[in-house]
Design brief:
five-stranded mixed β-sheet; 8 strands
């Protein structure tokens, strides 16, 4: 069940199993540190979906990430045995993975032969998230495809960049919020909503609840559920107003988001009302976010233009342009693009 959930990204199940996953990873890592590994080859035979196999074959020298815990054997014949079992399945490609593991690797991989139910298989277990460099892909006479892989470590630039990205974006103390952010990045809106709601159940600080309502509103907007999105934005706004938040830019952004949803719902007057509220909030308390204010004036101009109120639209464009003239230098490439768009 665990590996299936990891492979198919069933994040609700993974959340429930998170403690077990962490403990298993830690045990593999601890076992890895205890033993010295000479450079060796490990083997895994299996049937692979044709689409997955084709992606590997066409990606020589690229990276292959295995999301689940990966069981392998030190015995090539064991791997071939499992590969042969897949030869009779026309929907699968029979493959034998030959994995080279460097003796200096720091990626958690451990010999679990003494713990395995099948001791003769000489089983080695890789932790989830192991990444491999794809080498040659060749077909044996009996129809089994041999995929040569090399285990990568933290020195791999592509892998390091990916890990650093997730380290920076997945650091919140609320585990559900981390899952929600991940789902949001993957555009998995339903799952993102599920974890945002779970995170909301345990949050008591008004600032964090306000952010969660805002994020839920964005998710609902992506799902086209504009009424529910508006309700969440208003909840976020109510918390800011009740606590007398002094973040004018934050309020202005929420007003702008509400206005954008009203625009999508073709409620033009309401959209203008909230764009104007956003301008007022942005100008409050000496806030000087000129770029935001210029954009808000331009947004109102777009609506007025749609309504056929061309003179009013032109006035708003001129207000926006005036702010931009003060904000950008005359030789700015951004300013040039702005002139091309509005003039």
């Amino acid at each position: 069940m665990l590996n299936k959930a990891l492979r198919t990204h069933q994040y609700d199940i993974l959340y429930l199993l998170r403690v077990f996953i962490r403990h298993l990873h830690e045990q593999i890592a601890a076992q890895h540190k205890k033993e010295s590994i000479d450079q060796k080859k490990l083997f895994r035979g299996q049937g692979m979906d044709k689409a997955d196999f084709d992606r590997i074959r066409m990606n020589k020298n690229g990276l292959l990430s295995i999301s689940n815990f990966l069981s392998t054997s030190a015995e090539r014949e064991v791997g071939l045995h499992f590969a042969r079992e897949a030869l009779h399945d026309r929907k699968k490609v029979s493959v034998l993975m030959e994995i080279t593991v460097d003796k200096n690797t720091i990626v958690p991989v451990a010999n679990i032969a003494d713990l395995s139910a099948y001791k003769t298989e000489q089983e080695w277990l890789f932790s989830m998230g192991s990444v491999f460099r794809i080498g040659s892909v060749e077909c044996l006479p009996d129809g089994i495809w041999v995929i040569s892989l090399t285990l990568t470590d933290d020195q791999d630039e592509q892998l390091s960049a990916l890990r650093e990205h997730f380290k920076k974006s997945m650091t919140d103390r609320n585990t559900c919020l981390n899952f929600a952010k991940l789902m949001h990045q993957l555009a998995a809106w339903r799952k993102s909503e599920y974890f945002y709601l779970m995170a909301l159940e345990t949050e008591t600080q008004w600032q964090r609840r306000s952010v969660l309502f805002n994020n839920l509103a964005m998710v609902k907007g992506e799902l086209g559920q504009y009424g529910e999105a508006l309700a969440y934005y208003h909840k976020s706004l109510e918390l800011k107003e009740a606590e007398e938040s002094d973040s004018a830019t934050d309020k202005a952004t929420t007003y702008n988001n509400i206005a954008a949803l009203y625009y999508k719902e073709k409620k033009m007057d309401r959209a203008i009302e909230y764009f104007q509220k956003a301008i007022k909030a942005s100008n409050a308390q000496g806030n000087n976010d000129e770029e935001l204010v210029a954009t808000l004036h331009a947004n109102i101009a777009t609506i007025l233009d749609d309504q056929g109120k061309y003179e009013e639209a032109l006035e708003k464009c001129e207000e926006s342009l005036k702010i931009r003239l003060n904000f950008f230098s005359s030789d700015s490439s951004i300013f040039s693009k702005y002139l091309q768009y509005y003039c």
